Fold:
Amino acid sequence: MEQTFYQKLTQTSLQDELLSDAVCQQLLSAVEVELLPLLDAAYQVRKNYFQNEVQLHILNNAQNGHCPEDCHYCAQARTATAEIDTYSLKPDAEILAEARAAYESGAYRYCIVMSGRGPTPKRVRHLAQLIHAVKIEYPIEVCLSVGLLDTEAARALKAAGLDRLNHNLNTSEAHYPNICSTHTYQDRMETLRAAQTAGLACCSGVIVGMGEENADLIQVAKTLRRLEVESIPVNFFLPISGTQIAEPSVLTPDYCLRVLCLYRFLNPRAEIRIAAGREHHLRSLEAMALYPANSLFLEGYLNATGTAASRTLQMIRDAGFTVEINGEVAEEMSSSVGALSKRASTPSEVVIKELEVLRPRMASGNS
Ligand code: SF4
Structure:
């Protein structure tokens, strides 16, 4: 492919113009589109908005399992048979202690994630108090993932200090009925609109590898662009035993990197996060994902472990990127980060998190 093709991609993205579906298809799958110049073209866009900085996110799986929904990709769905440790909402003291640990370990953002269709008004009031307490104690950005929400609930959470709501679209409108029957794509869109009406920043992303076509991934990326979503986690489906995706797609590192480039070109100002499946699907090319993406999760995902934090931080440094810690670029990592690495595993096999990893304070009797 001519050099001008890659230059045009960068230029179009930086000028806030939309790539056509045909060009999107081409960069995802045409053999004549080479990976290295494509990554460089996406990197020029990333560098323009985020320089070489990487934001770290740490998830707190605040409530695990017991979900009435049937999202086929999820180990916590009522229809899943995955062997996970389930528990209802952690006590406030435990969540606060884990927020402190995330802050001290250098996380830029603390993501509280709860299973379930959506919170009751009583649960919304409780979460509002909890978020207020975290924000008073620690200067850390707080993101909440809590299922479907209406505008009234979103306003209450915003008033309590919530910075961002996570609610993934996951896949396209056309493919949605193949991955869930208990709620719809429209339900998810309405939650994002409610969050935006309440003035919350939105984090919404995609799961790649659930049997969708390229066109589905392109549609999601363009919808997130229209919604001007600030943060986009790009997950690569982790085949946890007992989840219900009948025919997961075969994902190669090359394809995963192309998807990250696509999301960068279509959403140039958004925080693009390499989310679940980073280690499993990108394998030896993991560091290359930092060229299109500017954010990642430390310490694994909701129910699966990830690479040891120290190795991830080493990878970031080795590739010439810097870490944003508590809103500032760090030259040296906090020494407490080293402690996190004891709680993660190495990588390419999917390993279910044990209770002592999901609830370290409880396991040590230290809340
Ligand atoms: S993704 Fe959320 S709503 Fe869907 S089954 Fe899992 S926990 Fe429930």
Remarks:
- The longest helix spans residues 121-137.
- The two ends are 58 Å apart (CA to CA).
- Residues 19-362 form a domain with the TIM Barrel fold (CATH 3.20.20.70).
